[in-house]
Amino acid sequence: MGVASHLGIRLADYDRRIRTFIPSYEEFLDAAAGVVSGRARTIVDLGIGTGALAARCAARAVHARVVGIDADAQILTLAARRLGPRTTLVHGDLQRAPLPAADAIVASLSLHHLRSDAARSRLFERIRRALRRGGVFATADCYPAAAQPLAADQRRAWRAHLTESYTTAAAAALLRAWAREDRYVTLEREIALLRRAGLRPEVVWRRGTFAVISSQPRT
Fold this sequence. Notes:
- The protein is an alpha/beta fold and 219 residues long.
- Helix content is 43%, strand content 24%.
- It has a seven-stranded mixed beta sheet with strand order 3-2-1-4-5-7-6, with helices on both faces.
- Helix 3 packs across helix 4.
């Protein structure tokens, strides 16, 4: 299933509609791009989508080559238009596509498609091996709280953001659909999996249920 079908929108509307789905979307991506060094030469974006995060990373590291991986061939056409000749786009599953040696590996709203902790662990281990000395991995995603009262508050805040653009019923339906189709892990669980894979994670940004984690290989 392509990302537009997954979200129930037209592909051409993705960049506009994603802002109605994700609170503080611009700040969210800026925080992820902010961990990328301006000296980076190779940046890999896992689940590059339309290239919104990759474009921010490339603007920071002006001499970098970007490698974008996505399983959705259609959305890669939008990334190609946005990013231009500095980018190599790979149509493939981020769990299986080869990862080149990189100074930065980033992922935004893509890891929640992984169906198990084992799949996350395998990917994190591959990321650690692909990172060059001093390299960094940044993931920006939905990480609900482990404590149910706080998780419920986060869900209400997310629903409130959705109701700025959609009816109350439509907002509730979107959250139910995403809960069925996606697999969210808690922030604590993600940090534990990153550490187990030999990475040193740090939460660099958090708003409600969304967070950005920066990780580097342990020395």
